[in-house]
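Hi both,

Apologies for the delay on this - the queue was longer than expected. I finally got the pyridoxal-5'-phosphate-bound model through. Below you'll find the protein sequence and the ligand SMILES exactly as submitted, and right after that the structure tokens for the full complex including the ligand.
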Amino acid sequence: MTSPQPIRDLILAVPSPLEELADDRLRAAGLRMLLKRDDLVHPDLPGNKWRKLKHNLAAAAAGNFHTLLTFGGAFSKQILATAAAGHHFGFNTVGVVRGEEHVPLNPLLARAAELGMSLTYVDRDRYRRRTEPAFLRRLRREFGPHYVIPAGGANREGVRGCAELPGEITSAYDVICVSSGTGCTLAGVGIGLPAGRTAIGFASLRGDFLTGDVTALQREYGRTTQNWTVNTEFPFGGFARRPPELLDFLTDFRDRHGITLDAVYEAKMMAGIVELAGRGHWQPGTTLVAVLG
Ligand SMILES: *Cc1c(COP(=O)(O)O)cnc(C)c1O
């Protein structure tokens, strides 16, 4: 399948840069850290979301679909990224948002609407049943034929895009750290990892479902690997929670490094890395790559 071609100007900073992060806490543990700056790929289409969308766009075009439909919470970056992808690649887009409509729209949904996305709202109960045939039929009646991108972009095409990440890393390293929502990124990174390297996914949601979900996504892709683990110690209370200790970490990290981490994913992963480093989790001399964005 060929790569999707934008119909409008689109500048994606790919491959995203790799930067050394000099952090005293990691250095004290004998660790070197490189940041894979996927957050710099595009403001509406950060690398994590772009990787998961890319092959889905190609599949939608190959199937002659003119509309993309996706799901997410009201603060889902996947919704916004799909709106941006539709805008740039010439698809209509529909966002099925969990919960009630709140007017005015939050900045993320307002931007998605500005990019041309139709937003529709479903209650939590119906949202939970979003993959059932009856619900999907209803959506087809309402919005016409469309290509469905699951919540978080977590499908086989999403895994495929994320599997391309390790190949972009040209420096020597031992461990790739990612933050995990659906686990799609971790599933793909595990598949793309060269021999002898490992990946850790830091769960940003509470619960123990990720190991099973990552395995299921790898199976859907057609290859399972044993080179990854999930860490569930640092969800900081759950998905949309921002407890003071997380915000303090974020502020301190910004003061140290001039990088503002997002509170949903990146700050939890980074706080987890710093904590694990302090506990001696990695041998001195280990090089970590942490993926932002
Ligand atoms: C969306 C997002 C994730 C979620 O990744 P999954 O593939 O759903 O596990 C992780 N990190 C960042 C920065 C994201 O924007």
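Main takeaway for now: The two ends are 26 Å apart (CA to CA).

I'll put the files on the shared drive as well.

H.
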